[in-house]
C-alpha cells in the first residue's frame, strides 16, 4: 500500500544514531541521504534494504501527536534483538517483547519510544 513514510525529528544526529542501531537487527540501514544543501532546508535519511529507502526521518520541527510505525521482523528472535538494540541506543521501553493475544495468538511484538517519543515497533506474526 505505501511506497514510503517519513516524519521530522528534533535532533537529526541523535535520531539517526538511534535508528542506525535499532533497525540493524531487522536488516534495515540508510539507503539514501539527502543533505540540507540539496533540499534547501532539512537533512533526511531514508532507511530500508536493497537500495530502497522506505522509512525516512528528517531534521525539522516535531508537531502534534507522536506517530506509530511497525516494522516486520522475520522471527521472534529478531523482535528481541530489535528491542535490545533500540534500548541500548537510548530508546524508552513502551512494551517489552511478547505475545499480544488481543491482536491474534501469534502476534509477537516489542515497542520502544524513539528520542522524540514516536512509538516504534518490531512485530512477527509467525508461530514460534
TrEMBL record:
CDD domains: VOC_like. Pfam families: Glyoxalase. Residues 1-125 form the VOC domain. It comes from the Bacteria. InterPro entries: Glyas_Bleomycin-R_OHBP_Dase, Glyas_Fos-R_dOase_dom, VOC_core. This is Glyoxalase. It comes from Labrys miyagiensis.
Amino acid at each position: 500500500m505505501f511506497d514510503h513514510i517519513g516524519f521530522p525529528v528534533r535532533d537529526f544526529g541523535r535520531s539517526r544514531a538511534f535508528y542506525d542501531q535499532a533497525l540493524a537487527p531487522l536488516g534495515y540501514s540508510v539507503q539514501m541521504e539527502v543533505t540540507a544543501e540539496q533540499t534547501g532546508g532539512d537533512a533526511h535519511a531514508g532507511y530500508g534494504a536493497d537500495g530502497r529507502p522506505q522509512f525516512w526521518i528528517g531534521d525539522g520541527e516535531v508537531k502534534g501527536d507522536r506517530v506509530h510505525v511497525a516494522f516486520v521482523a522475520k522471527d521472534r528472535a529478531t523482535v528481541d534483538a530489535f528491542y535490545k538494540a533500540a534500548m541500548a541506543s537510548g530508546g524508552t521501553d513502551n512494551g517489552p517483547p511478547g505475545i499480544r493475544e488481543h491482536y491474534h495468538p501469534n502476534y509477537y511484538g516489542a515497542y520502544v519510544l524513539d528520542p522524540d517519543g514516536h512509538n516504534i515497533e518490531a512485530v512477527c506474526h509467525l508461530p514460534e
